[in-house]
Request: fold
Amino acid sequence: MKSLLKKLIERRKEEVTILLFDDENPHQQESYSLKPAKLFTILGGINIAIVLLIMILFYVTPLGSYLFNKENRAVRASIVQIHDRVLALQDSLEARDQQLYEIQNVIRNNADTVFVTRSNYGWGSGLTENTETPPVRSYRTSHYPGTQSLQGDQIIHSDVFSGNISFPAEPPVTGTLTGRYQPESGHYGIDIAARKGTDVRVVADGVIISSDWTINNGHTLHILHANGYATVYKHFSEIIYRTGDIVRKGDVIGKVGETGLLASGPHIHFELWKNGVSLDPQHYINLN
Reply:
């Protein structure tokens, strides 16, 4: 057999004649003329067809999972989307934890809570022995001269917490309500759309306890008020005050922007909290 295949390969481009003899009747013989190259092509095609047929049978049956990765693209896209949402939620929870931690430090009058005062437009020395210069933020800020800043114990005894907040208060910005309070979906405030650069005003006297930037929420301010109230403002294009600054009702604290991945246009996200519990701002501010 090997010698026959060898001969056929050597003469694959020639036309050969194959003679077949019957051992019982030597005088009877049959002859066939063919080209080995054509024979090999036919045999190769048959083999490929058989392999393809077997693969198709495996693919359309449960056995195909052993040979093919038949992952559902829709399921994969859903998993990727859920993963992205989990990462965004984790970022929001970390920012909220940091906010609550800072509020607790102020309320407890922690001696280690140190705020810094400023002279004119620059950062000045601290009110305690901590004279380390705070880092300069990379985002745009502007400041009013003579802004009062306090240390933790001074905040507790400041007259900023001696009065009551008057409700309904004026909204932080004049605009259109585009997002309502939906705590069940993680939206703990309202969204007010306005032209980019519009002034944003504080709704009551208070102290800036956090002036920060996050990937999802952009430039943000957290303000502590009297009677356990706190307000949160997100997506500024520009902020005016820094941590430790005292603000009075109606003061301009920043400009409307669309910073952060969660911003879908120029607006301000506004939250209202009471003793660590979120409230629906629509019930406490005058949006008419």
In short: The longest strand covers residues 229-239. The chain is about 25% helix and 25% strand. The chain has two domains: 2-66, 112-129+136-283.
